[in-house]
Amino acid sequence: MRAHLKPTSWSRSATHSKSNSGQLLTAEPSRTASTVNVGAVSFSNPLLPFEEIEAAAGRLAGVTRRTPLLTSRTIDEMSQRAVVMKAENFQCTGSFKMRGAYNAIAALKDDGVLDDGTSIVTFSSGNHGQAVARSAQLLEVRATVVMPSDAPEVKRSAVRSYGATIVEYDRVAEDREEVATAVAARLGATIVPPFNNHYVIAGQGTCGKEIIEDSPPLDAVAVCLGGGGLLSGIATAFSAMSPGTKVIGVEPATANDGQMSLEAGKLMVIDQPRTIADGQATRSLGDLTFAVIKQRVNKIVTVTESEIVEAMRLCFDRLRIVVEPSGATALAAVMAGKVGSEGDRVAATLSGGNVDRARFARLLVDGAAPETTG
């Protein structure tokens, strides 16, 4: 009998101080996990069982794509590594987020939490919102997505195209989780968070499972890191299936709360992180994702805004594909020599390709400096 995990609940009661620069690192977020139920046994260990990734793979069969692993002789020569790239920019809705969103909503329906026509709410800078909107459409539930008013238009229009309602918020003046909680209370809806949820993590972990199954043995895998759903899911898959592979998280240097959290041994917050990688501009990891990262991730490295743009250019010039800034950070770290050693076989996640055409062209031509946002 498959183990069932109780959906995560959390609150935001703690406060943190702010700085004028938006870079002061303080306090611990108050996202707290509920007790996890596995079958008839209750336990509070937040580490995800690998069996939940296998269950997620079953739910996702026939829904998500088994995205390809790309290779390039030029990239191998430039990096002095044998590189495989997991092209999640080819995934349904344009990013890996479809894996976690669909798995979470489908599991909630399996558990009787959701019925046809009931409502869900999520908060997202774009990719998770698109994935929730499409998953809700497929599973016949109503979706509302809380998005920053400055979210890329390509992501906003996609959310609308899947039939979801958008509620805007000011990312500087308002807390998106508080806005989402208020909206959910008004609608009587269930919140599907973007990363701090076991079902979401399990869905993202299927990406790691596919990498392992489709590639030769790897020395290291580099994974884009925002809130930690993808990294913790992939780390869980590698811990079970390829424990000798080093798992490396990659963040923008100006949004490196995960790196500092791992070094400090506790959750750290960056108030208003500023980076071109809008999908990685999270203030902190979640408590569930951090618990997995502490146990199953070898290290977290950072890349500069310029290195991110160079990786985007490389994907376009050599692979002829479009990768958004958040999707290019893992490859950026590989190209900068921050993942593995010379001669190693490494994997990098290309986690998404949802970027406005005009912004993509501007970044490739002009570089990162004029585009850095909060």
Describe the structure concisely for a colleague.
The chain is an alpha/beta fold and 374 residues long.
Give a verbal description of the structure:
The chain has 374 residues and is α/β, with parallel strands linked by helices. The chain has two domains: 50-95 and 197-366, Rossmann fold; 97-191, Rossmann fold. Helices cover 40% and strands 16% of the residues. It is built from 13 helices and 14 strands. The chain has helices at 50-60, 73-79, 97-110, 127-139, 153-161, 176-187, 198-214, 229-241, 257-264, 287-296, 305-319, 325-335, 357-366, and strands at residues 25-26, 36-38, 41-43, 69-70, 82-87, 119-123, 142-148, 165-169, 190-191, 220-224, 246-252, 269-270, 299-303, 345-350. The strands form four sheets. Strands 4-5-14-10-11-13 form a six-stranded mixed sheet, with helices on both faces. The model is unreliable at 1-44 (pLDDT under 50).
Per DSSP E runs of 2 or more residues, the count of β-strands stands at: 14
Oligomeric form:
single chain
The helix-and-strand class reads alpha/beta
- Can you summarize the main beta sheet? 6 strands, mixed
CATH class of the largest domain: Alpha Beta
Please give the alpha-carbon distance between the first and last residues.
46 Å
Rg, rounded, reads: 19 Å
Overall tally of domains:
2
Q: What is the H/E string?
A: EEEHEHEHEHEHEHEHEHEHEHEHHEH
Name the CATH architecture of the largest domain: 3-Layer(aba) Sandwich
Strand order of the largest sheet: 4-5-14-10-11-13
What is the percentage of strand-forming residues?
15-25%
Helix content: 40-55%
Total DSSP helices? 13
CATH fold field value of the largest domain: Rossmann fold
Low-pLDDT stretches are 1-44
Shape: globular
